[in-house]
Amino acid sequence: xxxxxxxxxxxxxxxxxxxxxxxxxxxxxxxxxxxxxxxxxxxxxxxxxxxxxxxxxxxxxxxxxxxxxxxxxxxxxxxxxxxxxxxxxxxxxxxxxxxxxxxxxxxxxxxxxxxxxxxxxxxxxxxxxxxxxxxxxxxxxxxxxxxxxxxxxxxxxxxxxxxxxxxxxxxxxxxxxxxxxxxxxxxxxxxxxxxxxxxxxxxxxxxxxxxxxxxxxxxxxxxxxxxxx
Length: 229
Fold this sequence. Notes:
Number of domains: 1
Distance between the termini: 54 Å
CATH topology: Pnp Oxidase, Chain A
Helix content: 10-25%
């Protein structure tokens, strides 16, 4: 039986907030190395990833949806929901464009290499509408939110020992890795003579196979979390 409530205690509330702190949504870093089909050597693509990380204005951490089915508890009467599957929501990345529209071009090229709707032959664009093998157009995306101390704000417990729970000091900092991600669409961009102070932003929607936690070792952009195969 739960303990009786004694009303709101402002002191306990302030202590709890002070002890565990808060985290803001504007402190994060994203690592994503474009696949080889976008062109360039691995070294060049890693370098591009470093530059891209400073241009990514926003990204959404993945949501989780449990699919459920209604089942009769007794064959008849009221139903009860039971989980049957899990779904992950797609993510959206907003990028502050450079003066040469390099990232708009990069992601258009990426999608065109997934499903060839442009093509090139003797200087003319002749699409062949062929689909690329999935292993050639996917990459991993690492998302690392940070707290005010500059360390990753995600904590993950290692495997629990048989003796009981792991103390809080054993929690490991982690990043979220979106595995086998690829762009599915690029939002249209409105151009207007009246908008002389607005920045050009490339907004790309990504889907992915699944996601997992990866131990975070450094805030440096090293590509250490990414699948470079």
